[in-house]
Amino acid sequence: MARPREFDPDKALEQAMDVFWQHGYEGASLPDLLSGMGLTRGSLYKAFKDKRSLFLLVLNRYEQIAVAQAVALLGDDSIPDGADRIDALFASITDAVEAGDKRGCLLCSAAAGPSSYDPDIAAAVKQALQQMHDGFSTALAASDIPPDEQPALADLLVTQYVGLRIMARSVDRLDVLSRAGAAVAGLLRRG
């Protein structure tokens, strides 16, 4: 008879997410994962197969949590002006760094790293970034931006968001992030 698992798979995924978030996909070694998850090598391989499979599960969980929260903010009808929703999302980047969270965005790190050579990771990143694009489109539809400009602006906002979240991992000066957020706000309210 097989022995029951002696760990909570959901908690282990959360712990793996923290390791990947801190070290990135390439930088997260097997010892880092084992230590961070509190698992033995055999338990990790039995439950999650390998590092890549574990990372794909972590990306899925990240999408369900962090991406869903960002998209919910962008679609929040209690904030009538969509530009204000976008401002709030960009301000949250600076707020996180100011509070000491320099992990950036796991999705954005994956977009800048393993998605360039792994088609499954690329597909997961593409799906989550499409959700962000749809969220920006929803917010822009509730703004004063002319409808014919909204698709290109949604593209620009996704790239700006990804760039700022990646920069959040290495920028020591908050003014850089703040100025970029202010530039986005100015773009949304031009005219």
Q: What's the short story on this structure?
A:
Pfam families: TetR_C_13_2, TetR_N. This protein has helices spanning 9-27, 30-37, 41-48, 51-74, 82-98, 106-112, 119-141, 150-167, 174-188.
Description:
The protein has 191 residues and is mainly α. It has a single domain (52-189), classed as Orthogonal Bundle (Tetracycline Repressor, domain 2), CATH 1.10.357. It has nine helices and no strands. It has helices at 9-27, 30-37, 41-48, 51-74, 82-98, 106-112, 119-141, 150-167, 174-188. Helix 1 runs antiparallel to helix 2 and helix 4 packs parallel to helix 7. The longest helix is centred in the N-terminal third of the chain and has 24 residues, at 51-74. The N and C termini lie far apart (71 Å). This is Transcriptional regulator, TetR family. Keywords: DNA-binding, Transcription, Transcription regulation. Residues 29-48 bind DNA.
* Residues in helix, %: over 70%
The total of helices stands at 9
Number of strands: 0
Looking at this structure, what is the CATH superfamily?
Tetracycline Repressor, domain 2
Organism: Litoreibacter albidus
Pfam families: TetR_C_13_2, TetR_N
GO molecular function: DNA binding
Keywords: DNA-binding, Transcription, Transcription regulation
